[in-house]
Amino acid sequence: MIQQRGNLDWLLKELADGVPGIHQIVVLSADGLRIARHGGDPDAADRVAAACAGLQSLAGAVAAEMPDSDGRMRMVIIEIDGGYFYMMEAGPNAYLAVLSDVVAEAGLMSNRMRDLVVRIGDHLTSPPRRTGQTV
Protein backbone atom coordinates (compact mmCIF):
# COMPACT_ATOMS: atom_id res chain seq x y z
CA MET A 1 0.00 0.00 0.00
CA ILE A 2 1.35 3.41 -0.93
CA GLN A 3 1.03 5.92 1.84
CA GLN A 4 0.96 9.54 0.81
CA ARG A 5 0.82 12.37 3.30
CA GLY A 6 -0.70 15.51 1.90
CA ASN A 7 -1.25 16.27 -1.74
CA LEU A 8 1.85 16.35 -3.98
CA ASP A 9 0.12 18.18 -6.84
CA TRP A 10 1.23 21.65 -5.74
CA LEU A 11 4.85 20.52 -5.32
CA LEU A 12 4.92 18.99 -8.79
CA LYS A 13 3.27 22.05 -10.31
CA GLU A 14 5.90 24.23 -8.64
CA LEU A 15 8.65 22.23 -10.36
CA ALA A 16 6.86 22.45 -13.72
CA ASP A 17 6.39 26.20 -13.34
CA GLY A 18 10.04 26.70 -12.32
CA VAL A 19 11.70 24.86 -15.22
CA PRO A 20 10.60 25.73 -18.76
CA GLY A 21 10.01 22.78 -21.08
CA ILE A 22 8.63 20.18 -18.67
CA HIS A 23 5.95 17.99 -20.27
CA GLN A 24 5.26 15.48 -17.52
CA ILE A 25 6.30 14.73 -13.93
CA VAL A 26 5.61 11.37 -12.29
CA VAL A 27 6.23 10.21 -8.72
CA LEU A 28 6.26 6.42 -8.60
CA SER A 29 6.85 3.51 -6.27
CA ALA A 30 9.87 1.25 -6.79
CA ASP A 31 7.60 -1.42 -8.25
CA GLY A 32 6.31 0.95 -10.95
CA LEU A 33 2.99 2.24 -9.64
CA ARG A 34 2.13 5.90 -10.13
CA ILE A 35 1.79 7.82 -6.87
CA ALA A 36 1.30 11.32 -8.31
CA ARG A 37 1.66 13.13 -11.60
CA HIS A 38 1.60 16.55 -13.23
CA GLY A 39 1.08 17.09 -16.95
CA GLY A 40 0.30 14.48 -19.57
CA ASP A 41 -2.53 12.03 -19.26
CA PRO A 42 -2.92 9.40 -16.52
CA ASP A 43 -2.36 6.46 -18.90
CA ALA A 44 0.94 7.95 -20.11
CA ALA A 45 1.99 8.53 -16.48
CA ASP A 46 1.22 4.88 -15.70
CA ARG A 47 3.36 3.74 -18.64
CA VAL A 48 6.24 6.00 -17.56
CA ALA A 49 5.98 4.68 -13.99
CA ALA A 50 6.06 1.05 -15.17
CA ALA A 51 9.08 1.69 -17.41
CA CYS A 52 10.88 3.47 -14.56
CA ALA A 53 10.68 0.37 -12.36
CA GLY A 54 12.88 -1.54 -14.78
CA LEU A 55 15.16 1.42 -15.38
CA GLN A 56 15.84 2.03 -11.68
CA SER A 57 16.64 -1.67 -11.23
CA LEU A 58 19.06 -1.57 -14.16
CA ALA A 59 20.68 1.65 -12.93
CA GLY A 60 21.12 0.15 -9.46
CA ALA A 61 22.80 -2.93 -10.94
CA VAL A 62 25.22 -0.74 -12.89
CA ALA A 63 25.88 1.44 -9.82
CA ALA A 64 26.77 -1.67 -7.82
CA GLU A 65 29.65 -2.29 -10.24
CA MET A 66 31.22 1.10 -9.52
CA PRO A 67 34.10 0.89 -7.03
CA ASP A 68 33.33 2.65 -3.73
CA SER A 69 29.63 2.94 -4.64
CA ASP A 70 26.82 2.06 -2.27
CA GLY A 71 24.98 0.59 -5.27
CA ARG A 72 22.17 3.12 -5.21
CA MET A 73 21.06 5.01 -8.28
CA ARG A 74 21.12 8.78 -7.74
CA MET A 75 19.99 10.11 -11.13
CA VAL A 76 19.44 8.79 -14.63
CA ILE A 77 19.37 11.15 -17.60
CA ILE A 78 18.44 9.90 -21.05
CA GLU A 79 18.59 12.11 -24.13
CA ILE A 80 15.82 11.26 -26.57
CA ASP A 81 14.73 12.83 -29.85
CA GLY A 82 13.03 16.07 -28.89
CA GLY A 83 13.97 16.12 -25.24
CA TYR A 84 15.21 14.44 -22.09
CA PHE A 85 14.12 11.95 -19.46
CA TYR A 86 15.29 12.41 -15.85
CA MET A 87 14.77 10.05 -12.93
CA MET A 88 16.02 10.16 -9.35
CA GLU A 89 15.30 8.56 -6.00
CA ALA A 90 12.58 10.50 -4.16
CA GLY A 91 12.49 8.66 -0.85
CA PRO A 92 12.29 5.12 0.49
CA ASN A 93 11.06 2.99 -2.43
CA ALA A 94 9.91 6.03 -4.42
CA TYR A 95 11.23 7.86 -7.50
CA LEU A 96 10.71 11.15 -9.33
CA ALA A 97 10.63 11.08 -13.14
CA VAL A 98 10.47 14.06 -15.51
CA LEU A 99 10.01 14.25 -19.27
CA SER A 100 11.06 17.55 -20.84
CA ASP A 101 11.74 19.09 -24.23
CA VAL A 102 15.15 20.37 -25.33
CA VAL A 103 14.48 23.82 -23.83
CA ALA A 104 14.89 22.48 -20.27
CA GLU A 105 18.46 23.08 -19.04
CA ALA A 106 19.91 19.90 -17.53
CA GLY A 107 21.74 21.59 -14.64
CA LEU A 108 18.69 23.59 -13.60
CA MET A 109 16.49 20.51 -13.92
CA SER A 110 18.69 18.33 -11.72
CA ASN A 111 19.01 21.05 -9.06
CA ARG A 112 15.26 21.66 -8.96
CA MET A 113 14.55 17.93 -8.87
CA ARG A 114 16.94 17.52 -5.92
CA ASP A 115 15.23 20.39 -4.11
CA LEU A 116 11.84 18.80 -4.74
CA VAL A 117 13.03 15.39 -3.53
CA VAL A 118 14.03 16.94 -0.21
CA ARG A 119 10.55 18.40 0.11
CA ILE A 120 8.77 15.22 -1.07
CA GLY A 121 10.50 13.24 1.67
CA ASP A 122 8.26 15.00 4.18
CA HIS A 123 5.11 14.02 2.26
CA LEU A 124 5.75 10.55 0.94
CA THR A 125 6.60 7.03 1.99
CA SER A 126 6.21 3.93 -0.10
CA PRO A 127 6.86 0.86 2.08
CA PRO A 128 7.65 -2.49 0.41
CA ARG A 129 4.60 -4.44 -0.70
CA ARG A 130 3.68 -7.55 1.24
CA THR A 131 2.43 -10.86 -0.15
CA GLY A 132 -0.59 -11.10 2.14
CA GLN A 133 1.48 -11.84 5.22
CA THR A 134 0.66 -10.01 8.38
CA VAL A 135 3.42 -8.40 10.38
- Number-wise, the strands total 7
> What CATH architecture do you see?
2-Layer Sandwich
Structural class: alpha+beta
**Spatial strand sequence of the major β-sheet:** 3-2-6-5-4
Question: What would you note in describing this structure?
Answer:
It comes from Streptomyces cynarae. This is Roadblock/LC7 domain-containing protein. It holds the Pfam family Robl_LC7. This protein has 135 residues and is of the alpha+beta class. The protein has a single domain, classed as Beta-Lactamase, CATH 3.30.450.30. It contains three helices and seven strands. The strands form two sheets. A five-stranded antiparallel β-sheet has the order 3-2-6-5-4, sandwiched between helices. A two-stranded antiparallel ribbon has the order 1-7. Strand 2 and strand 3 form a beta hairpin.
Question: Characteristics of this structure?
Answer:
single chain, 135 residues, Beta-Lactamase, two-stranded antiparallel sheet, 7 strands, 30% strand, Roadblock/LC7 domain-containing protein, Roadblock/LAMTOR2_dom, Mycobact_SerProt_Inhib_Rv3364c
List the helices and strands and how they pair.
Elements: E1 3-4, H1 9-18, E2 22-29, E3 34-38, H2 42-64, E4 75-80, E5 83-91, E6 94-101, H3 106-120, E7 124-125
Antiparallel strand pairs: 1-7, 2-3, 2-6, 4-5, 5-6
Helix pairs in contact: 1-3
